[in-house]
Amino acid sequence: MREFFGLEVENGGYLREPEGYFSWQHLLFVTLICLTAILLGILLGKRSRSRSYREKNRVLITAALLFDALEVFEIVFLCFRSHDPLNWVKNLPLFLCSVQAIALPMAAFCKGRLKLAALDFVSIFGVLGMLLGTYGAGQNYACYPVLSFNNVQSGLIHGISGFAAIYIFVSGMDSMRKRDIWITFSILTGLCAVAYAANVLIDYNYMFLMRGDGTPYDIVYNAVGGSPVLYPLSVVGLFLVYIAVFYLAVFLIRRRRGVDRTQPDDRQR
Questions:
Q1: At what angle do helices 112-134 and 24-48 cross, to 10 degrees?
Q2: Full 3-state SS string of 12-75
Q3: At what angle do helices 149-171 and 112-134 cross, to 10 degrees?
Q4: In this predicted model, what pLDDT tens digit does every residue of 151-209 receive, in sequence order?
Q5: What is the mean pLDDT of the chain?
Q6: Distance, CA of 177 to CA of 175 (rounded, Å)
Q7: Angle ∠(182,186,191) on CA atoms, nearest 5
Q8: pTM check: above 0.70
Q9: What is the sign of the dihedral through the CA atoms of 195, 98, 106 and 49?
Q10: Is the N or the C terminus of the chain less surrounded, counting Cβ atoms within 10 Å?
Q11: pLDDT by residue (tens digit) across 59-99?
Q12: Torsion sign (Cα): 167, 206, 88, 11
């Protein structure tokens, strides 16, 4: 257990050699996490579909509390393990996946348009964050053994993120209204601005706005020649394009099915 938590090495670390990014151990581990998240999202979503909105929301509340509990535990534990009380500044929820620590509680506890916008944000980035944070997490699986605190904790929060997005859609909690697109754009752009400012102040790489660090963002980084201006703008631009494409896909599917989500519901009351 001391080795699992990285306590056998001074200031935190592991004695075991990492199995490697895209090793069969990495792929097996993250596939099990993603399949579990997807199956739970579908099963619980179908079970809750015919229930009241308040009952549906209880599952989302549980996911939000669990997500934030894991995030807080990680921050506190890594400060303890590194013997550095300021270690928390490099573990803030300013990555695309960990920002669900803010968005998911908003989706679970807020009301009105703020709740609807948070539901949209979780729906749009939940599955993407799960896939990028598991299959695409080269910065983790190249550095740490698969069965280690760093990777297990990361896998769990990314799994919860994907689960929440799938559950929201399957249970019928999703909103995805045209008039709320600007709110989702604003949330994403604001978070990127805060993350970039934090990167400059503490020399870090939140939202991977400074470099790719072995993730798929390296494709963008290499495409622009590592430009300190074009690279972050390109990453933010891709986020916004992804949001627009996601909304468009949902609108087209709903139009084909004749679904109308323009009327207010009890989420706004």
A1: 150
A2: CCCCCCCCCCCCHHHHHHHHHHHHHHHHHHHHHHHHHCCCCHHHHHHHHHHHHHHHHHHHHHHH
A3: 130
A4: 999 999 999 999 999 999 999 998 788 888 888 888 899 999 999 999 999 999 999 99
A5: 91
A6: 6
A7: 155
A8: yes
A9: positive
A10: N
A11: 999 999 999 999 999 999 999 999 888 888 988 888 888 88
A12: positive
The CA-based diameter of the chain, rounded to the nearest angstrom, is 60
Amino acid in the structure at residue 189: T
Task: Read off the pLDDT of each residue in 103-127 and give the average, rounded to a whole number.
Answer: 92
The confidence score (pLDDT) of residue 86 equals 82
Q: Which amino acid is at 157?
A: I
- Tokens encoding 196: 């970039």
Q: What sign does the CA torsion over 222, 228, 234, 239 have? A: positive
3-state secondary structure of 189: helix
